[in-house]
Amino acid sequence: MSVIHPNFRKAAIIGCGFVGSSIAFRFLQQGLFSHLVLIDSNREKAEGEAFDLSDGVPYGSAMEIIAGSYDDAADCGLAVITAGVNQRPGQTRLDLIGKNTAILESVLRELTARGFGGVLLIVSNPVDVLTYAARRLSGYPRQRVIGSGTVLDTARLKQLLGEELGVDSRNVHTFIIGEHGDSELPVWTGANVSGLNLDDFCRLRGKELSAERMQRLYLSVRDSAAEIIRRKGATYYGIAMAVGRIAECVVRDEHAVLPISVSLEGEYGLDGLALSVPAMVGRNGLETVLEIPLSQSERAALDASARRMAQAIAGLGI
């Protein structure tokens, strides 16, 4: 089937659980899209979300929100996949591989059969494994298959570091990269506050940021999802904000830098897997993977994370 020309004022969200509905609410607030299609295996759930969200349109942005089908998603510029089982207390994201890969495969079968030509944004976990699986199963070029990656984890680190340093977290620049999960790593090399490296900023502010404290901040970020799940059962607001930011980059063709999940083709010396790394994001999805400077220990941690992802992918047999 020929590819349908995408309408970047139209988006689809596939999966209307806590995450999918929170993303839909964020899209309504942002005013990025004029049409939003909600798809769920439970049609009534999608209809209920569409009705509820539509009630807020007079106080948000002009948008047609419908509970639709894959036919309605064919010409979307962005399709966000959140369908899948959720992480439960005591589980890691990698524990979700089997069921969520099967769900992903069924979703992609529907989209590819209809000539979907937009950007595919994977949010379901484990996002790095599923991003790679989506690229292989769909046959789409890697530019059009991206994952939410560690955009949320990076925001968590910025927020905690901003609180620690007493500065607006939007002025803090650093990354979490690698797996969106237990093997992720912080990149302290090049971390800065509005261009001032952390040591200089701390000196000017009369603060101290010890290696021990930096490690505790990282561990807090790494374990954040588990702590939220233990307390309230699921995480959804933070990831909705992160997906909204990625969507902005696509719709507005921003050429912005975000640590999304992408299939690697030799970058960082890695191939045959997807990892979350800094990349430029625009209208076509992935534009360029950025190979940022890493310390020796950071590089070793990234390689260890890559091995973990490669092992997980090998088990899929794709």
Q: What descriptors fit this protein?
A:
3-stranded antiparallel beta sheet, 6-stranded parallel beta sheet, Rossmann fold, globular, 318 residues, 11 helices, 12 strands, 43% helix
Describe, in short, the structure shown.
This protein is α/β, with parallel strands linked by helices and 318 residues long. The protein is 43% helix and 23% strand. The protein folds into two domains: 7-147, Rossmann fold (3-Layer(aba) Sandwich), CATH 3.40.50; 151-314, Lactate dehydrogenase/glycoside hydrolase, family 4, C-terminal (L-2-Hydroxyisocaproate Dehydrogenase, Chain A, domain 2, Alpha-Beta Complex), CATH 3.90.110.10.
3D architecture notes:
- 43% of the residues lie in helices and 23% in strands.
- With 318 residues, it is α/β, with parallel strands linked by helices.
- It folds into two domains: 7-147, Rossmann fold (3-Layer(aba) Sandwich), CATH 3.40.50.720; 151-314, L-2-Hydroxyisocaproate Dehydrogenase, Chain A, domain 2 (Alpha-Beta Complex), CATH 3.90.110.
- The chain has a six-stranded parallel sheet with strand order 3-2-1-4-5-6, sandwiched between helices. A three-stranded antiparallel sheet has the order 7-8-9. Strands 10-11-12 form a three-stranded antiparallel sheet.
